[in-house]
Amino acid sequence: MPFSLKEFLKKVFPDKKEFEEMPDIPIVTETPPAVPPTQTELPKEVLTIVETMKAENKKILDELAAYKQKEEDREKLLNQKAQDERKAKIDAAVKQAIDNRKIEAQNKGLQDSYKALLEKDFENGVKAIEALPVIGGEIPPGDKSGTKSPLESGSGILSHIKEHQKSTALGEIK
After folding, report:
1. 100, 135 contact by CB (below 8 A)
2. Which among 133, 96, 131, 128 is positioned nearest to 114, based on CA atoms?
3. Which listed residue, of 18, 45, 135, 173, carries a Cα 20 to 30 Å from 35's Cα?
4. CA distance 106 to 138
5. Is 41 exposed, middle or buried (0-12, 13-18, 19+ CB in 10 A)?
6. Degrees, nearest 5: CA angle 142-144-150
7. Distance CA 5, CA 149 (A)
8. What's this model's pTM, rounded to 2 decimal places?
9. What is the spatial distance between Cα 5 and Cα 23, in angstroms, rounded to a whole number?
10. In this structure, what is the dihedral angle of CA atoms 92, 84, 121, 115, given to the nearest 10 degrees?
């Protein structure tokens, strides 16, 4: 006799008495193999409809695959464009830092370090660059190159010579 649902429940829940009144329902452990319908059992009209539906399904699946491929290509293109724009933005920020004399133009290693910082966290990287002191002091208004002549800088031997020339021209001898 096949195993019944009542026997199973009694084994799982031995302390429950409610299963005593339950009818024996056999549990089928093997399913009989399904008998596929033969071609002769179905009317010709049904077979024609099935074949038409298979063809339509294949066409729809092909269209769906083509659409999916288009979307994947579009997504790749958008990602590449976003990466290019981000790289251009990072390069522009580093170039601006060089123009503002915050980073030396000759120091490629430092430029690469700031580019890496900007790639990880652009906003905080820009704040860090802006907080850097100007190399060689403040940029005077109107000075596009960002460099001062030794006479204008107020330091070094040339500025002392200039001061001496001014004082001797006024009649003061030192």
Report:
1. no
2. 128
3. 45
4. 20
5. exposed
6. 90
7. 101
8. 0.46
9. 9
10. -50
Tokens of 72: 């994947």
DSSP state string for the chain: ---BHHHHHHHH-TT--GGGGSPP-BPPSSPPPP-PPPTTTS-HHHHHHHHHHHHHHHHHHHHHHHHHHHHHHHHHHHHHHHHHHHHHHHHHHHHHHHHTTSS-TT-HHHHHHHHHHHHH-HHHHHHHHHHSPPTTSPPPTT-SS----HHHHT-SHHHHHHHHHHHHHTT---
- Residue linked to tokens 């290509």: 73
